[in-house]
Amino acid sequence: MKIRSHPVVCREAIELMSDYLDGSLSRRDTRRLEEHLAICPPCRTYLAQMRLVISVSGSVSPDDLSPEALDDLVEVFRRYRDEPESS
Amino acid sequence: MNDLELVDRLLEGDERAFTDLVTRYHGTLVRVARYYVRTPASAEDVAQETWLAVLRSLSSFEQRSSFKTWLLRILVNRARSSGTREFRTVPVDPTSGSAVAASRFDEGGFWCEPPVPFTDSVDDRLVNEPLVHLVREAIAQLPEPQQAVITLRDVEGLSTSEVADLLELSDANVRVILHRARSRVRADVEARREGRSV
Ligand SMILES: [Zn+2]
Q1: Which domains can be identified in chain B, with CATH numbers?
Q2: Distance (Å) from the C-alpha of residue B155 to the closest C-alpha of chain A?
Q3: Does B27 touch chain A (CB under 8 A)?
Q4: Residues with CB under 5 A from ligand 1 (ion)
Q5: Contact of B110 with A9, CB cutoff 8 Å
Q6: ipTM of the assembly?
Q7: 35-74 in B: which are within 8 Å (CB) of A?
């Protein structure tokens, strides 16, 4: 039995947006969401925010490497470089 | 310089190439390691061991996968075997974390306190410096599974199925965690922009 799809309200729409932006939402939910977006400016704003957050995440570098951590790693590198070849 | 160029130089023993790769990826390694081990210090250890393993096996790196994926695979294997916490099933708690506070919707489920655009016209992430900081801070506040997933997917740009593979989760599980993570980051950025606490 096929469940008749009911219209989306805002509270539900925002739960679908992450999958929607990744193209992993079902066809049916995509249609329901797009029908809602067509009539709901606040949800379009929300979607734009999500899109922006995702795109900005792509230019975030996770953490600044502390000088100490970098020193430790350079130490690892030098020890390795000076290891005998056979190891 | 891209990863493969750096790898080539590293194979010739170039220390600078090593520090460039470390600067590029160490933070991500630590963050993903945190998904498996209990403390920041052991995550740091696992990441450090990973770099040594990379140096030792770099000559066998065949470039069938990207360097990034290869590196992360080494990290995950080490983290998993040294994990003080045995490999955990990711808690997907259906009750936790709706994307937005319920109070912002009316009884019918429509916005009564709608979102305000983050930017008026500026949609360029290069111009949007402050937003980068807000997003970075917001990611750092997430619970570890969410941090690991959003870091791999949105920060490092792996596909959902690559993330699922690496962390041994189902695609569906990755999508749920990702949804939570992105929603929280959005909410956090919104709150900070408005000077509210989350
Ligand atoms: Zn709406």
Answers
A1: 1-88 (1.10.1740.10), 116-198 (1.10.10.10)
A2: 4
A3: yes
A4: A 10, 13, 40, 43
A5: yes
A6: 0.88
A7: 44, 48, 51-52, 55-56
Return the CATH number of A10-82, one of 2.30.30, 1.10.10, 3.40.630, 1.20.120.
1.10.10
Measured in angstroms, the CA of A78 and the nearest CA of chain B are apart by 8
Inter-chain contact A69–B26, Cβ cutoff 8 Å? yes
The C-alpha atoms of residue B97 and residue A64 are separated, in whole angstroms, by: 29
Q: Which pTM does this prediction carry?
A: 0.87
List own/partner pairs for A44-48 with CB under 8 A and 24 or more apart. A45/B114, A45/B115, A45/B116, A45/B117, A46/A13, A46/A14, A46/A17, A46/B115, A46/B186, A47/A17, A47/A20, A47/A21, A48/B117, A48/B118
Percent of chain A exceeding pLDDT 70 equals: 86
Within an 8 Å CB–CB cutoff, is residue B157 touching chain A? yes
